[in-house]
């Protein structure tokens, strides 16, 4: 009696993982996402492992989740996966106030963001 099954948004050779409400600004997260965009997953994982950015650990875990989704849910070969998309979106912003001189207050914004990683299986060029 339940609702009808929705069509799959991705192709059959793609899998994705989403990291929501991560406590960093979208601009900082996009710097790390741009490093792995379009690369093979082994190279992307190695680059995230040795990155000095704080958020790279969370991005690495999300990429590993996308790889696991590709292997377990869609039966794709992990050796031929490429990061086809890695994009960042804005989430909520916590507003805080910081006391300043003469009874004034300065607004502090603490942004959150979302990260989506899509991996695609590609055929090896022989």
Automatic annotation (TrEMBL):
Keywords, sorted A to Z: Ribonucleoprotein, Ribosomal protein, RNA-binding, rRNA-binding
SUPFAM superfamilies noted in UniProt: Ribosomal protein L22
Protein origin, superkingdom: Bacteria
GO cellular component: cytosolic large ribosomal subunit
Database matches in PROSITE patterns: RIBOSOMAL_L22
Matches recorded under InterPro entries: Ribosomal_uL22, Ribosomal_uL22_bac/chlpt-type, Ribosomal_uL22_bac/org-type, Ribosomal_uL22_CS, Ribosomal_uL22_sf
GO terms for biological process, alphabetical: translation
Signal sequence, renumbered to the chain: none
GO molecular function, one term: rRNA binding
Family per similarity comment: Belongs to the universal ribosomal protein uL22 family.
Stated role: The globular domain of the protein is located near the polypeptide exit tunnel on the outside of the subunit, while an extended beta-hairpin is found that lines the wall of the exit tunnel in the center of the 70S ribosome.
PANTHER family: CHLOROPLAST 50S RIBOSOMAL PROTEIN L22-RELATED, LARGE RIBOSOMAL SUBUNIT PROTEIN UL22M
Assembly mode: Part of the 50S ribosomal subunit.
Protein name: Large ribosomal subunit protein uL22
Gene source species: Pelagibacterium halotolerans (strain DSM 22347 / JCM 15775 / CGMCC 1.7692 / B2)
Lineage: Bacteria, Pseudomonadati, Pseudomonadota, Alphaproteobacteria, Hyphomicrobiales
Gene: rplV
């Amino acid at each position: 009696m339940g609702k009808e099954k929705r069509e799959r948004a991705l192709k059959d050779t793609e899998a994705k993982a989403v990291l929501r409400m991560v406590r960093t600004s979208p601009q900082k997260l996009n710097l790390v996402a741009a490093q792995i965009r379009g690369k093979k997953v082994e190279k992307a994982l190695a680059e995230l492992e040795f990155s000095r950015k704080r958020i790279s650990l969370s991005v690495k875990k999300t990429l590993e989740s996308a790889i696991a989704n590709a292997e377990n849910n869609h039966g794709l070969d992990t050796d031929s996966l490429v990061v086809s998309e890695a994009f960042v979106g804005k989430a909520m912003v916590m507003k805080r106030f910081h006391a300043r001189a003469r009874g004034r207050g300065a607004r502090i914004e603490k942004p959150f963001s979302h990260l989506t990683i899509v991996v695609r299986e590609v055929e090896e060029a022989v």
